[in-house]
Amino acid sequence: MSSIKKKGVILFLVEGISDKIALSLPMTCLLNRSYVQFQIMHGDCLNRTDGRTIQIIQSSIRDVMVKYSYRKSDFTRIIHIIDTDGSFIPDRCVYLSKNSGVEYFSDHIETGELHETIARHHRRTAMAEKLAHTEKILGIPYDIYFMSRNLEHVTQNNGGKVSSSHKVTYAEKFADRFADDIFAFTDLLYKAGVAAEGDYLSSWHDIMTGTNSLRRRTNINFLIEQYFDDVYSVR
Fold first, then answer.
1. Is the pTM of this model over 0.85?
2. Torsions phi, psi for 64 (to 5 deg)
3. Among 55, 77, 132, 213, which residue's CB has the most CB atoms within a 10 Å radius?
4. For residue 230, what pLDDT is reported?
5. Structure confidence at residue 130 (pLDDT)
6. Cβ contact 189:218 at 8 Å
7. What is the 3-state secondary structure (H, E, C) of the chain?
8. What is the pLDDT of residue 231?
9. pLDDT value of residue 234
10. Which ranges of the chain have pLDDT less than 50?
């Protein structure tokens, strides 16, 4: 995992607006010695049938560079946060359903599009594993972290299907709750059964094992650990 340099720009790449709403303020407070920017990827860039995931990431970084007149040397780190969507589970744990869409359970997924879902899982797993071992993109230190099954599962313990409007509502409530309490934010991500164990790479191995990607888990605690001295020195 990449090392930390003080000051400079830390860019967060997130899937949607709810991720930005929920995380931008707490992360800006947490990383208060750096300039924090959020870039929305508008969906799941790991599920690319054309294999252009890294090019999409590069394009997003360049968009931020143009928008804010940044140079590559201005960035100290790229933080990419994804939802697992339970997609790292074995094929045998994906069941065909008469209903459309995808339903999540503690030990399996039910879907009306069996073959398409399994193919998507394979693409996402392969790309997530590649990105977990990627140290730099465009020469900038890069790390990728997961929320399982998604942001709402980790932050609200709601692992079911959430509409777009409810995602935003949850995110706004989350941001309001932790706007003035960064310690509560870090403590939440260190709850037993939520925080990943081991280290950065072993957390990726663990989340890709069995049905773990359906469980409530995040490895963003490893990001927070690197800023403990800054945050907890004022407690």
1. yes
2. -65, -40
3. 213
4. 57
5. 97
6. yes
7. CCCCCCCCEEEEEECCHHHHHHHHHHHHHHCCCCEEEEEECCCCCCCCCCCCHHHHHHHHHHHHHHHHCCCHHHEEEEEEEEECCCCCCCHHHEEECCCCCEEECCCCEEECCHHHHHHHHHHHHHHHHHHHCCCEECCEEEEEEEEECCHHHHHHCCCCCCCHHHHHHHHHHHHHHHCCCHHHHHHHCCCCCCECCCCHHHHHHHHCCCCHHHCCEECCHHHHHCCHHHHHCCC
8. 56
9. 47
10. 3-4, 234-235
Alpha-carbon gap, residue 37 to 58, rounded angstroms: 15
User: Which residues on neighbouring strands pair with residue 109, listed in sequence order?
Assistant: 94, 104
> How long, in residues, is the chain?
235
Evaluate the omega torsion of the peptide bond into residue 216 and state whether it is cis, within 30 degrees of 0. no
Q: How far apart are CA 183 and CA 191, in angstroms?
A: 12
Give pLDDT tens digits for 8-18: 999 999 999 99
